[in-house]
Design brief:
Structural class: alpha/beta
CATH class: Alpha Beta
Helix content: 40-55%
Radius of gyration: 18 Å
CATH topology: Rossmann fold
CATH superfamily: NAD(P)-binding Rossmann-like Domain
Number of strands: 4
Distance between the termini: 24 Å
């Protein structure tokens, strides 16, 4: 992270880039981050809740602890940071919050069951919070990327087809552009991402779950195991 901060300073002519280390999946992790920000006198203008993790494979066959940790990170950590920093934004009457959800938020996702459930929470929470903060000067937006070429499945036999994945840079740029346009939601990446979310809204839920499960079986996610 410190190397990345140095690259940002060099690439963009010396803007401040602070590194604050914290484990948002732990109960006290978000509080530690907020305390560190205050101790350094740093003011947050835009909170981007991007940290996330997920488990792939049959729910009952996969270890429970990583899935509970994913819930802590994707849900509890996001809630805690939003609550602490969101209050400061409202008090100033400006700024914004971007909660990174996923196209997985719109349908049950067999073989990624707990991950999709956390993203459904993020979707519902963000839409509700956006309405609560309407008129305060604080813009709240959810971002729903599809597959991204990252190390999301590292440590398992699951893989991401790079031909079907967007780059992190492209997703970040589109998300920030949509935020600047004050959009309620962002669907960064290829256009099929948004089309998939609409299909999930119009088809019966049982049908959507069957289709999503079939898709993930073709990706062999029902056979995922950990690797050293």
């Amino acid at each position: 992270m410190r190397e990345l901060a140095a690259q940002i300073r060099e690439r963009h002519g010396g803007p401040d880039a602070e590194v604050v280390v914290g484990d948002l999946a732990t109960p006290d992790g978000p509080d530690r981050v907020v305390r560190e920000l205050r101790d350094r006198g740093l003011t947050v203008d835009l909170l981007i809740n991007n940290a996330g993790a997920g488990s792939a494979g049959p729910f009952l066959d996969r270890p429970l602890e990583p899935q509970l940790r994913s819930v802590g990170l994707n849900v509890s950590g996001l809630l805690a940071l939003t609550h602490a920093i969101g209050g400061e934004l409202v008090a100033r009457g400006s700024g914004g919050i971007i909660n990174v959800s996923s196209t997985a938020a719109f349908q049950p996702l067999p073989y990624q069951a707990s991950y999709a459930a956390t993203k459904a929470f993020v979707l519902s929470f963000t839409e509700a919070l956006a309405e609560e903060l309407r008129g305060t000067g604080v813009h709240v937006m959810a971002a729903h990327p599809g597959a991204i070429a990252t190390g999301f499945f590292d440590g398992t036999t699951a893989t991401i087809d790079p031909r079907a994945a967007d780059t992190p840079d492209a997703v970040a740029a589109r998300t920030l552009d949509d935020y600047a346009r004050r959009r309620a939601a962002s669907y960064p990446g290829r256009s099929v991402n948004r089309a998939m979310t609409w299909a999930a809204r119009v088809l019966p839920r049982a049908v959507v779950a069957r289709l999503a499960g079939g898709f993930n079986r073709r990706l062999r996610l029902h056979e995922v195991v950990d690797v050293a």
